[in-house]
Amino acid sequence: MENFAAVEKALRTAAPHELVDIVTAALADHYGARRTQLRLADYAMRSLQAVEPVPLVTEPVPVNGSPQGRAFGAQEPVVTQDPDHGAVEVHLPVTVRGGRMGVLSVTLPENAYTAAVLPEIQHICEVLGHEILVAERDTDLYDLARRAARLTLAAEMQWQLLPGRSCSRPEFSLGAHLEPAYAIFGDNYDWSASAEHLTLTVTNGMGEGIEAALLTNLAVNALRNARRAGLDLQGQAMLADQAVHAQYHGRAHVAVLLLRFDIATGEVEAIDAGSPRLWRLRDGTVDPIPFEQQLPLGMFEDTVYTPQRFTVRPGDRLLIGSDGVYDAASPSGARYGERALARSLTGTRLLPPTQVPGAVLHELAGHHGEVPLEDDALVVCLDWHGRPDGEHRD
């Protein structure tokens, strides 16, 4: 592990834009690597884009149907042989706390590759992922690599709000995705986990473009402000409601579903203040979880919100869909509907939660065909594992 320690130190002291160069040089020195390339997943999660200075000239590779894509999807190393050049190419996922970022591809001489090399390079990938998260504060290099097309200004604002696209802990795993990725309107999601609780929110600000992005930014930051001030779920909803109403005086509002999970017991507090809906897959059966629908945030002054409760068990899968999913229209005008969404949830039951949102939205794309989506389509998938010593009640 001496090689790993040296590379880790070099990465931690490198300039933000030099991380790939540091890894390339280190892998060449310590393992004889002939070539190293870092690719990051684009916003639509359809391609892996090379990290390189502008102008970006390297062609992307698809997530589906490429060795790099297999490593990204399976979150496991993929090794391919190139006997004509006496080389082995290793593709390793770059992931931080369950958040899938991209893939590091390393070309090694055949005589330098052994199975013992993989763990060290995987450790390097972990450190690289952490350092990219830090470096992104000071450089656009990695953000540019995620763009297969130009973002609208509204989408730029919305993506900056998101916590990531996946998160994993021993007690739960979740994944989320927004579509269309490059021209988002007002949909958003947020999560935060502490030692005892997971808070998950899905929001849908009315309107389009910059107006929707500004509204959603206000609501999400108001919810975060209340959560970080230590308010309970009811207090979070009421503070955000007041913030939106104070700014818009009822002319604009935000639909939101707020969930707060007790990690030890699986008990969940929920406030349904709008359109996002929740389904549960348990023991092979899909059921909607109904709530008493309350007023969207900002519609009236001093609205009082009342939490409702339900419980999740280990093995449960929850799926949240925005109205842009279940109300999406086909070319004939038929709505996608809750029944189709339930079928999609059943059909993706063997996929990890990080891949479920993309699979659901792929099926949705087949439904609406060439007809552009009239609204954002947002899907969040949560697998609940629980704690071995937790108490779980129906």
Describe the structure.
This protein has 394 residues and is α+β, with helices and mostly antiparallel strands. The protein has helices at 2-13, 19-31, 67-74, 117-135, 141-145, 153-161, 209-228, 233-248, 323-326, 337-347, 356-368, and strands at 35-41, 47-50, 61-62, 78-82, 87-96, 99-109, 166-169, 172-179, 187-193, 197-205, 254-262, 267-273, 277-282, 285-288, 308-311, 317-321, 377-384. The protein has a 6-stranded antiparallel sheet with strand order 3-2-1-6-5-4, with helices on both faces. The chain has a 6-stranded antiparallel sheet with strand order 7-8-17-16-13-14. The longest helix has 20 residues, at 209-228. The termini are far apart. GO terms for molecular function: phosphatase activity. This is Magnesium or manganese-dependent protein phosphatase.
What descriptors fit this protein?
single chain; 394 residues; alpha+beta; Beta-Lactamase; Phosphatase 2c, domain 1; 2 domains; 6-stranded antiparallel sheet; 11 helices; 33% helix; globular; PPM-type_phosphatase-like_dom; Magnesium or manganese-dependent protein phosphatase
Brief synopsis:
The protein is α+β, with helices and mostly antiparallel strands.
